[in-house]
Structure formats: structure tokens, C-alpha cells
């Protein structure tokens, strides 16, 4: 029995180490924003590692679209939980997030010595993001929109989010697509997606505790802020609220943070914009911009506090909803709605692929040519994504200069 327990513990440690290595590599190489991150995740976790299948991945992405906070980080946490439990989710989050957090803390500390402006190698990384996302969309579209009805649902979500770039367009598109999918596929029996056991090792009791903490902090932190004059509590409240109320990913949180800290004089407009530029130059989630602002305001410890506060809601929400989502996705009458949601996710990804990923990266024939070469290396010659990142950065440096 002792040998069995020891073998079990060794297996857990091995899984946790795998999660750390893979998530850290992604944290060092995943440029391009949340939609690009989903492409990197799909390539690494679904195609290469096969830690989860297409259906489970698309369901996890769909859930992340419903929740406020950084979608790609929540997907990464969910994958870590599937692979290694709650500790696996924490490790996955740390591996993916810490590289950019540390880089932005250094940027903030050295802010008076100059900031990295948009340069050739950064433009090359934007083109890499185009390639990674295009590859992911092709794979997901093949599996999630195999028939005409789901292709039309994806087209509806694409048109809605592309032509109406509203903060709530994604949520409205997903809700309407779920209703359409329910009507069209309520009598369809998807035997290939039936799942008899939960893939999320989280109890409903633990999930309810996490949801209670989430709403409790959201309610009581502003009260505590008013009752005290402690700067750290005020900072924690501001970053926690920003992380709790953002739908649409990292680009949306930036104006919220600007409104929270610039008018009050806690950070100057010039430093804010400089930090925004630095955030675009590092991999990982855009929410790590909080680490930069926190460091400007309170040194490296302020940066770590801001990072913890802005990501805490995402962690509590994903832990609090996964067990219930797992139950809903297995309900026979709701499978049609999930089919509609998954099709909508494809359309939303295509919309985000065009703007801002394509429009900010492909601005000349040379850009398109480089994207075509990188796409061929990734798809036809089966080169790993990390190598594509290196080649793209070097090509951008050579073509456009430093």
C-alpha cells in the first residue's frame, strides 16, 4: 500500500512538473493577445500533448467567454486543473503569467531609463500571432462547424462581433447562438461527445466556497476601502474590481485601469502609455499590465499585489463554475445549445483574428509574405510553435530593423 501511495505521489509530481514546463514555455513565447493565446493553447495542449480533446477544449473556451476576466488565463487554469487538479491549475497559471509579470516589473523599475518602443522584432511577433491563430481557427472550424447550420451560426457570431464592436457583443452572440443551437439541435443525439465522468476534479462544495469568496470580496472590499486609509487596501480593491467586471479580455481592462488610476494622479498619463507599450512587447496575458502599474505605485511588492488582485477573480470564477459547467454540458437537452455556443466561438475567433490581430500585423505585401512562410513552416513542415516565434522575431528584426 505504501508503494502504491508513493507511486501515486510520484505520478502527481511528474504531472505538475510537466504542467510547469509547458505553461512556462507558453508564457515565454505566447505573443499576440488573448485570442492568439487560445491558438497557442490549442496547438500545445490539444494537438500536441492531447491532454484534452477538441470538444473539451471548445467547451472550456465557451465557458471562459461567459465569465469576466482574462479568457486565455482562465482556459489555461482549466487545463491545468484537468491535468493536475487545483494545484495543477495554480501551476499552469503561474507558469503562463510570471514571465510577463517579472518583465513588466523590471520595465517599471527602469521606467526612467527609457522604454522599448514598437520595433521590428515586435512586428515580427505580431505576424507570428496571425499564423498561430489562423492555424487554430482552421482546426477548430473543422471540428465545431461540420454542417451548414453551424457554419451559419458561426457566420452570425462573426458578423455581430465584427460589425458591432461593443463590450457585450460577444456575450450577446453566445447567448443567441446557444438559443439557436438549442432549437436546431434539441433532438440530436451526440453520442461521440457523451461523457460519463467529470474531467474536472473539483467538488461542488469547493466551487460554492470559491463563488462565495468572489462575491464577498466584490461587496466588502469597497466598504473596507472607505473605512480605512490604507493604500494597499485601496490598490487591492481597485485591481480586484477591474478584474471582476471586465468582459472581453485584456484590451478592455486597459481603459478601466486608466480611469481608475490616471485621473486620481496615482500614475501619470505618460507612464501609463509607456507601460501599455511595454505590455505589447512581452508575451503572456495583457492583464499583467497591472504588475507594471502596481510597481510604479508601490515598488516590486506593489506589482505582485496588483497581479494577485487582478487575477484572483478569474481564478475564483473558474474554480467556482467548472463543476456546474461539467454537469450542464452533459445534459442531453442542452447539448444543442452547447453546439451553438461552440459554433459561435469559431465566429468570434475569426472576428478577433481580423481585428485587431490581422489589421495590426499585416499592413504590407512583405508582411503577408512572411506570414505565408511562417504558416507553411508550422502547418506543412510541422515545425514547433516556439521555433516559429524565434524565426518570426528574427525576420522582423532583419526586415524592419530594431
From TrEMBL:
GO terms for molecular function: chromate transmembrane transporter activity. GO terms for cellular component: plasma membrane. It holds the Pfam family Chromate_transp. It comes from Alkalihalobacillus trypoxylicola. It is a multi-pass membrane protein. Keywords: Cell membrane, Membrane, Transmembrane, Transmembrane helix. This is ChrA protein. It is found in: Cell membrane. The keyword Transmembrane applies. Belongs to the chromate ion transporter (CHR) (TC 2.A.51) family. The chain crosses the membrane at residues 16-41, 90-115, 121-140, 152-185, 205-227, 304-325, 337-355, 386-401.
Amino acid at each position: 500500500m505504501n508503494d502504491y501511495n508513493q507511486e501515486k505521489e510520484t505520478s502527481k509530481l511528474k504531472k505538475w512538473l510537466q504542467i510547469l514546463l509547458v505553461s512556462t514555455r507558453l508564457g515565454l513565447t505566447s505573443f499576440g493577445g488573448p485570442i492568439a493565446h487560445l491558438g497557442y493553447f490549442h496547438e500545445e495542449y490539444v494537438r500536441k500533448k492531447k491532454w484534452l480533446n477538441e470538444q473539451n477544449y471548445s467547451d472550456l473556451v465557451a465557458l471562459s467567454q461567459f465569465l469576466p476576466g482574462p479568457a486565455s488565463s482562465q482556459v489555461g487554469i482549466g487545463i491545468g486543473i484537468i491535468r493536475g487538479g487545483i494545484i495543477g491549475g495554480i501551476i499552469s497559471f503561474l507558469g503562463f503569467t510570471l514571465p510577463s509579470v517579472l518583465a513588466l516589473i523590471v520595465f517599471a523599475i527602469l521606467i526612467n531609463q527609457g522604454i522599448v518602443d514598437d520595433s521590428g522584432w515586435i512586428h515580427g511577433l505580431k505576424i507570428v500571432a496571425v499564423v498561430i491563430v489562423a492555424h487554430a481557427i482552421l482546426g477548430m472550424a473543422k471540428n465545431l462547424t461540420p454542417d451548414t447550420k453551424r457554419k451559419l451560426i458561426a457566420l452570425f457570431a462573426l458578423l455581430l462581433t465584427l460589425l458591432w464592436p461593443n463590450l457585450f457583443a460577444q456575450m450577446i452572440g453566445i447567448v443567441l447562438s446557444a438559443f439557436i443551437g438549442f432549437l436546431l439541435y434539441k433532438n440530436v443525439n451526440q453520442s461521440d461527445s457523451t461523457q460519463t465522468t467529470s474531467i474536472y476534479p473539483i467538488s461542488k462544495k469547493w466551487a460554492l466556497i470559491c463563488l462565495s469568496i468572489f462575491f464577498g470580496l466584490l461587496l466588502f472590499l469597497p466598504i473596507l476601502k472607505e473605512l480605512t486609509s490604507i493604500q494597499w487596501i485601496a490598490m487591492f480593491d481597485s485591481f480586484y474590481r477591474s478584474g471582476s467586471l471586465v468582459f472581453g479580455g485584456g484590451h478592455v481592462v486597459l481603459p478601466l485601469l486608466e480611469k481608475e488610476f490616471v485621473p486620481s494622479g496615482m500614475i501619470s498619463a505618460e507612464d501609463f502609455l509607456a507601460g501599455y507599450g511595454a505590455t505589447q512587447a512581452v508575451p503572456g496575458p495583457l492583464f499583467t499590465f497591472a504588475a507594471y502599474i502596481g510597481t510604479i505605485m508601490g515598488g516590486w511588492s506593489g506589482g505582485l499585489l496588483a497581479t494577485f488582485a487582478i487575477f484572483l477573480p478569474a481564478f475564483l470564477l473558474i474554480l467556482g463554475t467548472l463543476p456546474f459547467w461539467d454537469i450542464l454540458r452533459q445534459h442531453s437537452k442542452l447539448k444543442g445549445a452547447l453546439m451553438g455556443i461552440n459554433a459561435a466561438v469559431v465566429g468570434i475567433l475569426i472576428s478577433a483574428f481580423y481585428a485587431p490581430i490581422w489589421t495590426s500585423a499585416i499592413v504590407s505585401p512583405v508582411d503577408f509574405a512572411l506570414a505565408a512562410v511562417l504558416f507553411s513552416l508550422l502547418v506543412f513542415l510541422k515545425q514547433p510553435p516556439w521555433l516559429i516565434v524565434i524565426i518570426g522575431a528574427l525576420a522582423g528584426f532583419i526586415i524592419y530593423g530594431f
